[in-house]
Amino acid sequence: MNQPTLVRVFCQAMGCLCEVYLGGEAAAELEAIGRNALTLLQVWESRLSHYIADSEICVLNREAYQRPVPVSPELFRLLERLKSLTEETEGAFDPTAGRLVRAWGLFRQGTLRGERVESPSKTEIQRIVQEIGWSRVELDTELQTVSFQTPSVELHLGAAGKGYIIDEVIAYLRQQGIERALVNAGGSSIAAIGSPPQSGYWVLGIADPQDSERTVAQALLCDNALTTSGSMESAITLSGRRVCHLFDPRTGEPIAFQGAVSALTPNALEGDALTTGFYVNGEAWAEERCRRHPDTQVLWIETDEGRRDPRLARYCATQSRFLL
Amino acid sequence: MSTFRINTLSRREFMQESAVLATAGIAAIESTSASAQGSVAPLRIGIIGPGSQGQNDLKKAIKVPGLTCIAAADILDLNLNSAAKIAQISEDSLYSDYRKILDRKDIDAVMITVPLPLHAKITIDALNAGKHVFCEKLMAYTIEDAKEMARTAKRTGKVLQIGHHRASSIGYNHAYELLNTKQVCGKVTHVRAQWNRNGAWRRSIPGQAKMLAGREFWHDMEHLVNWRLYKRTSHGLMAELGSHQIHVTNWFLNAVPKAVMGVAGVDYWKDGRDVWDNVQCIYEYPDGVKVTYQSLTTNQFDGFQEEFMGDKGTLITTVGDGNTDKGLLYREPKAETLDWAQFTSKEKGANGKEGMVLNASATKKLNTGAKIGETTLSTEGSGKDAYDLEFYNWAASIREGAKVFCDPMEGLRACVATIKANEAMAKSTRIEIPAHLYEI
């Protein structure tokens, strides 16, 4: 009985380490498929990144207020899905709010750990909040064009781009006949095909948001995705207080909650959008969502600077695949 | 026998690679030197042009067992005095005319370390006089001269070795094996090489020196001492520095450039020189390989080194302190084969839970272009650097017919590439290098 080989390939992309783990028979063949997967991932990054000036997203952001911009069928479908995810999260996850991120001075590459940020003025924030949202974006299904009705709309896929790209990679791997795989983008978005041999699940450790060397729980993955929002890695200092880099797009204000939210979902795009929504909408909303959607499970991690161990809570309609 | 100290990761793998080396080029250098046996035929040589480089070469050459330097020729009296001191040459064997050395029947071979424009004439005269020759690089001032040197060596059957001494380097031979046999860089697609220094490259005129002959050619002491700075006598940085590295590139790629383009100028040291102080060129090798080369005199960043860049890694070769050869290998991100267990363990209690942590904060610090793996290759134990081995090899070639590590054809190839780069830079354009230039 042969144990299938496990091969890992990786690259730097989307501002983080991206890894593909592949299980199968021949290492050389797995490596070749893994390399193609990394290429696919980088190609998608070049289309969706904010930090690549000629990406489809950047072109859209530059031109869609002046005129309807034709976009690729893939991007059009992605925008439609994002729109429906905004609706599902009642506006808590909103990729049209790029201008808000910019107003808070968070629009740049690299780590923002502990960075001191000046609050933008209340009027400025209120103006932006009123001028953003999917109601200000016209998706013309007939012509496959996108236009913005206000100059404040700026699409920012930071919260969900990784998830979408990982799903694309997973689809490619399945197409190649891969039956065991794990795709990881920076630890915050992970998706799996199948499981390791003689094991029902991929066992992944969940890191303590305050101390990445510690694990506080485990997640069991099989044919689904694990996403996390709210790592303190990207926290900023605002009026002397460290806060998360996430904002409520409906009010324009940063979220007071400190900690992280991990979710197991059928795919990574949904996971990315939902964890952002959970973080913004709060614990009760997450609990309610999990009760109504058995395919979604949540691990709520609330940290307290005065306490070593975070408070953990699990929400799910069936048996939890988060182990404490 | 030389050994290699391998640092950092992949130690086991590199120990295996050094074992391969033991059967390759270096073993050949040592065995052909016959140094260990002690029973060596005497080899009497003369040196022509013991200037600064010639004196360095002479110090190395006389370390070869059985080799003695019994005569010297130079047109500067202080060079003759220095050579006499280094090799204990008697005063009546110091000449201002090199032909006096060629006439002596008791001299088997000559080292020719004169300025570039004189390489061809003296080498050809020496070979025709029945002497074996070591000639410093660049091989010749013109391509036709270099060809004539090679033809004369072939016709006379005498040894002609050109002074691209990296050919005799343990480290460089090791690197050649790594690149070509072990394919550690995968397919090499690009080479980046440079020799960057911060300095005028100007020699001070010795106050006490006396020019014994040759005034009609050199005019004055400045043009003799600083012959490297004037186009009439020099091909500048490309010849004096770049040709070493182009030689290595030709060697490592097993190829010669088919075109070259470039720009250059006297941009900083405007002191009357007409040889460029800033050269930048790009060579085109077969199979799409591009080689970028630069030599600066105003900034020494990264010093001198050659970087062989392939789809699996980058191998950097250089000569470090004390002429020890150094190599660095940077791997490109590479697939690893892993154990499944890290994804399946479920033991331990709270705060000590296992399972693979794919952690954002732990992994995001990998920067673009990060060193994925770095391995230092350095040599120890042999006590012989490339210059030493160069003359061991020369002696072995003369005595036993051993393969010359930098033979006339290798010298010609480096010479053509150098002169053509200068041509391209003089015109700031791209020029093709026809294949026949590399043939005699």
Determine Rg of chain A (CA atoms, Å): 20 Å
β content of chain A, as a range?
25-35%
Mean pLDDT of chain B: 85
Main beta sheet of chain B: strand number and arrangement?
A: 10 strands, mixed
- Count of strand segments of chain A: 17
The amount of helix of chain A comes to 25-40%
Query: According to CATH, what is the class of the domain at 63-148 in chain A?
Result: Mainly Alpha
Overall geometry of chain B comes to globular
- In DSSP terms (H or I, runs of 4 or more residues), the helix count of chain A works out at 8
Number of helices of chain B: 14
Structural category of chain B? alpha/beta
* Shape descriptor of chain A: globular
Query: Largest sheet of chain A, if any?
Result: 8 strands, antiparallel
Q: Give the helix proportion of chain B (percent range).
A: 25-40%
Which chains have the largest interface? A-B, 51 and 31 residues
Q: What ranges of chain B have pLDDT less than 50 throughout 5 or more consecutive residues? A: 1-28, 31-37, 348-353, 360-374
Q: Assign the CATH architecture of the domain at 63-148 in chain A.
A: Orthogonal Bundle
Name the structural class of chain A: alpha+beta
Query: Roughly how many Å apart are the termini of chain B?
Result: 37 Å
Question: Would you tell me the overall average pLDDT of chain A?
Answer: 88
Unreliable stretches of chain A (pLDDT < 50, length at least 5) are: 109-114
